[in-house]
Amino acid sequence: MRAGKARRLLIEGTILRPLRLIPVDQDAPYLEEDRKFFGACSYDGYSTCLFKSMPEEGNSQARTRYLKYMHAKSHSQARELGASNDDISLDYRRGYIVYPKPDPDLPGHVHCAIMVWDRYGVKHILEDIGRYVQPGDHTDYLLANFLKANA
Length: 151
Fold this sequence. Notes:
The longest helix is centred in the last third of the chain and has 15 residues, at 135-149. By secondary structure, this protein is an all-alpha fold. The termini are far apart. The protein has one domain (2-149). The chain is built from 8 helices and 2 strands.
C-alpha cells in the first residue's frame, strides 16, 4: 500500500509521456497533457529515439529532412539537423518518437517501457528518483524473454 502511494506521488511530480493506446503510424489527438509533455521535452532536452526508420515515402521534402534528422537524440538536435517544429510534432502524434526515460510504464502504452529501457540501456526517470515499475512486471518481461529464447 505504501509503495503504491509513494509511486503515485512520484508520478504526480514527474512529467511522463501521456499514455498512447493508438498504434504507431496513426495520428493521435494532441491533448493538453501532450502539449505539456512536448514542452517539457523541448525545455529539459529529454533524449529521444525515432522508432520508425522511414515514415515518409517517395522524394518529398519531408522525407529529405527526415533522412537528415532521424538519428537526432533530442528535439533541439533534430531542429539543428533540419527538422521543422511541424515535423517533430507530426512524428510525435504518429508515435514515431520514443522517449526512453519518460515513456510511461502503463499497461497498453504503444511502446513497452521495459523493452525501451532494455533496448536503449537507460534507466527510467522514475527509477532515477527511486521507484519505477512493479517488480512483477519486470520479472514477467525477463521471464518472457527467457522462454522465447529457449523455445
